[in-house]
Write a structure and sequence with these properties.
The structure is a homodimer. Chain A is of the alpha+beta class. The first copy, chain A, has a single domain, classed as 2,3-Dihydroxybiphenyl 1,2-Dioxygenase, domain 1, CATH 3.10.180.10. Helix content of chain A is 20%, strand content 35%. In chain A, strands 2-3-4-1-5-8-7-6 form an eight-stranded mixed sheet. Chain A binds chain B through residues 1-6, 9, 11-13, 19, 22-23, 25-30, 48-53, 74, 76-79, 82, 84, 96, 99, 101, 121-122, 125-127, and chain B through 1-6, 9, 11-13, 19, 22-23, 25-30, 48, 50-53, 74, 76-79, 82, 84, 96, 99, 101, 121-122, 124-127.
Chain lengths: 141, 141
């Protein structure tokens, strides 16, 4: 397997609205996408473009959101995960399992509409890592 | 100011040697640069290429390294900072100061040989943020 594009960095925030204002007014983001809910993962999501990758802002959605625990430790928000693209999600899952890395659950549809899974940070040098099948160009992502 | 390229994500590690083996053998990195010491910042540095950005591995160098505190909290390592490019470091410093963000020290030479500064995470949504003047093409970085 080859290390793929860094699709995005995931940034947790207590407020997407406040973070969008920050990225637009302080960081100078030129393109902020429309926020949307991803109930299956317990998050509200908003993508912000950089010239070569994206920032994925994550706000808790619902009581069981995995972001609550992160924000309890980091009330202002912070770096939550990184996401790399792969051409085939099932091949990638088999690859990481063969390397002894803990795959967290089965591949499921992620924020860009393609299959994703997460890898446990303990096997990833302390970095919560998302693996995502590369969106096809015709998907418009 | 416009949000620039994500030049790299900074990942702290207790061992660059072990992390290089991980990125090469597990993550499938195709290009790992030669590690080098950056004594002025108390770090040993190693860049790993992804197709669209870089990972900057950071190991403590010396007793006063700022990475020691991070590793005390995160012994396995983890996401340390993100770095965005700007065309002019002094304009960027004035911009962020005008926005009320805390610039940590004066611009200084960073790991890619151009001027950099860091911004306090409390003003950056919890994200330790490095701002870096874009390397010129002729620098070969």
């Amino acid at each position: 397997m080859q290390l793929g594009r860094l699709n995005h960095i995931g940034i947790a925030t207590p407020s997407i609205e406040a973070s969008v204002a920050f990225y637009r007014d302080v960081m100078g983001a030129q393109k902020v996408h429309t926020p949307f809910d991803l109930p299956a993962q317990g998050v509200k999501v908003c993508f912000v473009d950089t010239p070569n990758t994206q920032i994925e802002l994550l706000e808790p959605l619902g009581e069981g959101s995995p972001i609550h625990g992160f924000l309890a430790k980091n009330p202002a928000g912070g770096q939550h995960h990184v996401c790399y693209e792969v051409p085939d999600i099932h091949e990638a899952k088999a690859w990481f399992e063969a390397k002894g890395a803990k795959v967290l659950g089965e591949p499921r549809i992620g924020a860009h509409g393609t299959l994703i899974f997460f890898l446990h940070p303990r096997d990833m040098g302390g970095v919560l890592t998302e693996i995502m099948e590369t969106p096809r160009a015709e998907d418009g992502h």
